[in-house]
Design a protein that fits this description.
This protein has 22 helices and no strands. By secondary structure, it is mainly alpha-helical. Helix 11 crosses helix 18 and helix 18 runs parallel beside helix 20. The C terminus is likely disordered.
Length: 495
């Protein structure tokens, strides 16, 4: 085994040990689900950046910068940054005040009906599984490069590691390992960038050469035509915004924060670090055609890691991709399992379950999600479109409930009937257009996520204006707007 394999295997062992350690010190069901609502700003920043930076970004965006040009993907990432700040400084504070455990908790509290709870539960489970497929298939690129493993072995390793530390430590283990993984791949990105720059001709020669020889390097639309570039920019820009403002894994970080200031500070740290990360992991990879002009796009990052710079650095960079995949997967596992245990088992099957039994059931749900995802992802036909379409399908479903989520917090007139019909209508649009995209029927200028978002928004507004808001809905809306008491005041009240 070479140094690349040694470093990757060592990192996997470290993540397992962290999960075992956190699991042994788990303090109860609140720790398992929401980390005792005590996450610091640094942990929030680390887990958010790690969760949002999956194989879709590391393999897809670096490959896209190589093949299409970097500016397009920098523009797309800017919407994600705006979304993070919006959650940290506005949206997240209201979610945190509601003391949520899962996102369906929000919908059933703000829009009290079984239809909204059922619709949100279905969207969580479906979207998390679809996104997991995309994320886990992406790690095969690295594991096959380093070890020569096939899909089954790669899945056994990646799913096994994620399952163990998520099952043992829940949200606390996920957040802590996320932050450790974030440090690994952030440092790897920063350290690898100078070697790519040097191989391309150094500063400022590489940029001068790229400007003259690579038209896509200085064009906002890359190698796309104008109409195609605008269409894809709108789609991926909306997807980036939806990912950070409506996906269960990202939104869940709002209600694990120690307080509202910790959430805002965590997002501020992320806003400072994300541009550095995007520069090193996207913009610099736009220079790679000067170094290796005949690569497959998805191999751009693995090739740079194994051929540029010291082998140890390359090994850490490859371990960084694995870390990013595992961190995203662990968050998706945790949220899917939380939905199964809380929103299905406790809600419908055993409302009076004890905390000890509930913890056991929650862990069994993690295992169940792992088995389902492994079986689906191992199907050979899934791999042909899973990395891209799993991600886009998931984002389309999140877009279907984004209007109900935003309106529930920002609009007093939003009603339960409107939320239910909005999620149903948006979900149907996402499903129909998404299947059409896979079958190459849906035209490029009709992106499922954007149409689902617009359709759900129109339905929500129209139905809300034609139905009456209940007293219970108004009470929940007003409760969210009461400022959170300082921790010392809460402690005095408890005494």
């Amino acid at each position: 085994m070479d140094i690349y394999g040694i470093v990757i295997i060592s990192s996997l062992i470290v993540y397992l040990l962290i999960g075992v350690y956190v699991g042994r010190h788990l303090k109860g069901i609140a720790d398992f689900y929401v980390m005792g609502r005590n996450a610091s700003p640094f942990l929030i920043c680390g887990t958010l950046l790690a969760t949002s930076t999956s194989s879709v970004a590391l393999i897809g965006y670096t490959g896209g910068a190589y093949a299409i040009g970097p500016l397009y993907f920098i523009l797309v990432n800017s919407t994600a940054l705006i979304g993070n700040l919006f959650v940290g400084f506005y949206l997240g504070r209201y979610l945190r005040r509601m003391k949520l455990w899962t996102l369906p908790d929000f919908f059933s509290a703000r829009f009290p009906s079984e239809s909204t709870r059922a619709a949100s539960t279905f969207i969580v489970l479906t979207s998390q599984i679809l996104y997991l497929i995309a994320v886990l298939l992406g790690v095969n690129v690295v594991l096959s490069t380093v070890f020569g493993w096939g899909t089954i072995i790669s899945l056994l390793v990646s799913v096994g590691v994620v399952t163990v530390f998520t099952l043992l430590g829940g949200m606390r283990a996920v957040v802590i390992t996320d932050t450790v993984m974030f440090v690994v791949f952030f440092l790897a990105a920063v350290a690898l960038a100078p070697f790519i720059l040097a191989a391309a001709g150094g500063w400022p020669g590489a940029f001068e050469t790229a400007s003259a020889e690579l038209p896509q390097f200085v064009s906002w639309r890359g190698t796309y035509g104008t109409l195609e570039a605008v269409s894809l920019f709108i789609e991926l820009g909306i997807v980036g915004l939806v990912l950070v403002t409506a996906s269960p894994a990202m939104i869940s970080r709002a209600y694990i924060a120690r307080d509202e200031k910790s959430l805002a500070r965590g997002m501020l740290y992320l806003a400072l670090l994300l541009p550095i990360f995007v520069y090193c992991f996207v913009y610099i990879f736009g220079l790679m055609p000067l170094v290796a002009p005949n690569l497959e796009a998805e191999s751009a990052f693995p090739w740079a890691a194994t051929n540029l710079g010291p082998p140890l650095l390359g090994a850490i960079a490859l371990a960084g991709i694995v870390a990013a995949v595992l961190s995203t997967a662990s968050s998706l596992f945790q949220q899917a399992a939380a939905t199964l245990s809380r929103d299905i088992y406790q809600r419908y099957l055993n409302p009076d379950v004890s905390d000890s039994t509930f913890l056991i059931v929650s862990r069994l749900c993690v295992l169940l999600v792992a088995v389902v995802v492994f079986v689906i992802t191992a199907i050979p036909a899934i791999g042909e479109f899973g990395v891209l379409y799993g991600y886009l399908f998931a984002a389309s479903f999140w877009a279907a409930w984004l209007p109900a989520l935003y309106a529930g917090i920002m609009w007093r007139r939003a009603t339960t009937a409107a939320a239910a019909w909005s999620m149903l209508g948006g979900g149907i649009i996402a499903l129909v257009l998404g299947v059409g995209r896979v079958l190459e029927i849906t035209p490029l200028w009709l992106p499922p996520s954007v149409v689902a978002l617009l359709g759900a928004a129109v339905i929500l507004v129209v139905v809300s204006l034609n139905t009456r808001t209940s007293e219970q809905e108004i009470e929940v809306y007003e409760d969210m707007r009461r400022p959170e008491e300082p921790e010392e005041v809460q402690a005095d009240a408890r005494r």
